[in-house]
Design brief:
The complex is a heterodimer of chains A (270) and B (347). Chain A is an alpha/beta fold. Chain A contains 12 helices and 10 strands. In chain B, β2 and β3 form a beta hairpin. The chains are: A alpha/beta (270), B mainly alpha (347).
């Protein structure tokens, strides 16, 4: 790795160990994510992909290891403080606020950037009112417009189809003004058209907004198409990392996926 | 004729009163509230005052249970804390009523803050039991801390006054109640559409995701407990100043259940729902007593059967609403509104 690449490293994961009782979910995983790239994590079910994201979010505390984000030691932060550093995330099974409108969900993404407290919020005059209206304008113009969800802005989230919910969740994460976005299977359970939409959004977010993206995804077509680098996990260990082309030809990777070369190659899109 | 509800900018869409029609009807309702004491008799005014206190208490409980999702079975205890705090401040420390009410709210908020502490560890049914404990702890204190509370004999409270003007009748007290209710409801309505209220609802709907959004669960859950108890404390303080006496019997466990019933019947997670619920639940016992009077005339002796029915009716109402209209009276109201928005051409 050249020096310039080293300077660009935004998120450094070093030798992470995580175990639940006797089960080793992560066993010495290291990775480094560079600023502005799309970094994908793939691997069979139960490989520890989501566990790794949960460590970054501080839902889990690794028993050993270090996670540095722009020089901050994440393990010293509480879960609700992680977002203030500029780390946003979506979940595998949509974790939206079900009984609130789309608009309120996205507004909640901006929570950390708002200043009103329990007094000013209750009086709702002057600064607070201006803040709320500015918030609405920004959300409408930057997020609702971008994600093409104008028609559902006042719908209650749990009444929406799954694909739309995923899109709203992406919107909520974007409202946090993130520097890095952790996406946990954004295309899971979607049809081809919806997948294409989501991929288009991810690419736009990465290129136009300049947000670094960590992507967990099972759709190999998507992963191989849009990733700058791919990291492969299996049984809590990293077995490969590199450009999509390198990874798809890697012996260990092929072995981990089904163990059969022919089948795997076709599945990996080679 | 009205053809729908259209808005041209975000300011209008973020407004609290969404259309001219809403403003018009609310204005009319306000005029009614102002004229009411001039037309009503003493009994009606007595009921109106009780409704006012119930509205304040119910809005407070709804902030905690309906919006933040933390079920509390100890709301009456916080009313009691506020009531005793104001009574003691007025009679022993010589505070004026006007200062004692907000202070009583603060004392109650502090109590709510302490009782809320377990909410960080326990959820749902277990939290219910924890708040239930507070009901009995405070109930015990009211009775047995005799040097402060006078035990079961209670404390007599002089009526509030400005200069020589005393708010000593139902008609005069109505104005205090009216202003308090407007402030309480306005504050709650604004709170739930700003940062803090959204954070409350986020905790209710998905606390895990709320934490990812940067919401400090510790701070917001406790804030919710404190604000809710503040409301209860103010409601309690007003109530006992109105009754001119406070005893431990004013705050039984059943009162906590009544408040829960109010917000369930009215609509969880809705400020308007709390108001509907408070009105409805205060009028139920009234209706029953009117009913018993009628029965007394028609079939003397049978009226005694009606009065104990209060609890039974409450029980049936809660179950009935949970089964048939889980979103409460406010949902019925919304349906009626929707019907009339494009009336008579609703297609």
């Amino acid at each position: 790795m050249s020096d310039s690449a080293k300077e660009d490293i935004q998120l450094l994961i070093e030798d992470i160990h995580l175990d639940f009782g006797g089960l080793k979910a992560l066993n010495g995983v290291s990775a480094s994510v560079r600023k502005g790239e799309i970094f994908s994590i793939i691997g069979p079910n139960g490989a520890g992909k989501t566990s790794l994201l949960n460590c970054i979010n501080r839902f889990y505390t690794p028993s050993k290891g270090k996670i540095l984000f722009e020089g901050h030691d994440l393990l010293k932060y509480k879960p609700h403080k992680i977002s203030t550093l500029g780390i946003a995330r979506t979940f595998q099974n949509v974790e939206l606020f079900k009984y609130m409108t789309v608009l309120d969900n996205i507004k909640l993404g901006r929570h950390i950037h708002l200043k009103s407290g329990f007094l000013s919020g209750g009086i709702y005059y002057g600064k607070t009112r201006r803040e709320e209206i500015e918030l609405r304008e920004e959300i409408e113009e930057k997020i609702i417009d971008f994600l093409e969800i104008e028609h559902i802005r006042k719908s209650i989230v749990h009444t929406l189809p799954f694909g739309m919910q995923k899109r709203v969740e992406l919107g909520r994460a974007l409202a946090m003004k993130p520097k890095i976005l952790l996406l946990d299977e954004p295309a899971a359970g979607m049809n081809l058209e919806e997948t294409e939409d989501i991929v288009r959004f991810i690419l736009d977010i990465n290129e136009e907004w300049g947000v670094t993206i960590i992507l967990i995804e099972h759709d190999m077509g998507v992963v191989m198409d849009i990733s700058d680098r791919v990291c492969v996990l299996d049984f809590g260990e990293k077995i490969a990392e590199g450009k999509p082309d390198q990874v798809r030809r890697d012996e260990h990777v092929i072995k981990a996926y089904l163990g059969q070369a022919d089948l795997t190659l076709s599945r990996l899109g080679a | 004729m009205r053809s729908g509800d259209f808005k041209e900018d975000y300011i209008k869409d973020e407004a609290i009163f969404q259309s001219v029609f809403v403003k018009f009807w609310l204005g009319l309702f306000f005029v009614f509230l102002v004229l009411f004491p001039f037309a009503a008799n003493i009994h009606m005014l007595y009921i109106a005052n009780l409704i006012g206190f119930a509205v304040i208490g119910a809005v407070g409980l709804n902030l905690l249970t309906g919006f933040t999702g933390q079920i509390s079975l100890g709301h009456a205890a916080f009313l009691g804390v506020g009531a005793y705090a104001s009574a003691i401040l007025i009679t022993r420390c010589g505070f004026s009523f006007w200062l004692s009410v907000p202070l009583a709210g603060l004392v109650s908020a502090l109590a709510g803050f302490l009782i809320g502490l377990p909410s960080l560890r326990v959820k749902g049914l277990y939290l219910c039991i924890a708040t239930l404990a507070s009901q009995f702890i405070f109930g015990f204190i009211f009775v047995h801390w005799e040097s402060m509370t006078n035990g079961i004999t209670g404390i007599h409270i002089p009526p509030p006054s400005i200069g020589d003007f005393k708010f000593d009748t139902e008609r005069k007290f109505y104005w205090i109640t009216l202003v308090s209710v407007i402030l309480a409801v306005g504050y709650a309505r604004n709170l739930v559409r700003s940062k803090m209220g959204r954070a409350f609802m986020a905790i209710r709907d998905r606390d895990l995701a709320a934490e990812i959004m940067g919401i400090n669960l510790f701070r917001y859950k406790l804030s919710s407990f404190a604000i809710s108890s503040f409301y209860a404390g103010v409601a309690g303080a007003l109530w006992v100043s109105f009754l001119k006496v406070v005893t431990p019997e004013h705050f039984p466990f059943l009162l906590s259940i009544e408040y829960l019933a109010m917000i369930i019947v009215g609509g969880l997670g809705s400020v308007l729902g709390s108001i509907f619920g408070a009105i409805f639940m205060t009028l139920v016992p009234e209706t029953l007593s009117v009913l018993s009077d009628i029965v007394k005339e028609m079939a003397p002796g049978w009226e005694n059967l009606i009065i104990p029915f209060k609890e039974v009716v409450f029980g049936f109402l809660i179950v009935g609403f949970l089964v048939f209209e889980p979103h409460g009276l406010v949902e019925i109201w919304n349906r009626i509104k929707k019907f009339f928005i494009l009336w008579p051409f609703s297609y």
